[in-house]
Design goal:
By secondary structure, the chain is an alpha+beta fold. It is built from 9 helices and 5 strands. The chain is globular.
């Protein structure tokens, strides 16, 4: 429902932040990693979000990077893991360390996080080891391109192609071809998408 929110941070703790968006304050649950990445109170921030609806509550979870949000969603796919436990895992260590612990099958590292038992750690490893989202969360880092084009523009173009039904590897390869074919030109998201659609 909400892809992201941009506004002024009015409150900030290691567990939650309040974002003022055009006079409306949104309480957003966050991990320690996102807490560290967000600017100070009073500054403007863009927060990627995941909306959880329960019978007794509607909760927004926020993330500083797409990589963390993807990992959060992957954790939610694990049997018995809810949003609170997913945030606990994300807060327990840096994202690269958490990914490594899962792919290495390290039950000891995962269960060292407060509140995470051995059985929970084993389930996370079994269910995510082979399908964990790879990379930095920025698709643009895989694409060599002219620095006239911001990484955010490339990421948005790739996401748009994926939303149109193209597989992510195909979308990235197509954007790579577009940028290679027109070196040095500052393209907008819309221009990249239009050119990409001619290549697929």
């Amino acid at each position: 429902m909400y892809y992201c929110l941009t506004g002024k941070i009015t409150e900030k703790t290691p567990a939650a932040a309040v974002l003022d968006v055009n006079g409306v304050g949104y309480e957003i649950r966050i991990s320690v990693n996102t807490f560290s990445a967000l600017p100070d109170v009073g500054q403007t921030a863009k927060v990627l979000t995941h909306f959880v609806v329960r019978e007794d509550a509607q909760i927004l979870y926020g993330f500083a990077t797409e990589e963390e949000r993807e990992l959060f969603r992957s954790l939610l796919s694990v049997s018995g893991i809810g949003p609170k436990m997913a945030v606990t895992l994300l807060s327990g260590m840096m994202i690269p360390e958490l990914k490594k612990a899962i792919t290495d099958g390290s039950v000891a590292v995962l269960s060292s996080v407060s509140g995470v038992g051995k059985k929970t750690a084993e389930r996370v490893i079994v269910e995510l080891k082979d399908k964990l989202p790879k990379g930095t969360g920025k698709d643009s880092t895989d694409i060599v391109h002219d620095r006239n084009i911001p990484d955010e523009v490339i990421d948005d173009a790739i996401r748009a192609l994926v939303a149109l039904g193209y597989a992510k590897p195909k979308a990235k390869e197509t954007v790579r071809k577009v940028l290679k074919a027109i070196p040095g030109k500052k393209l907008t998201v819309e221009e990249i998408i239009r050119l990409a659609l001619k290549h697929v």
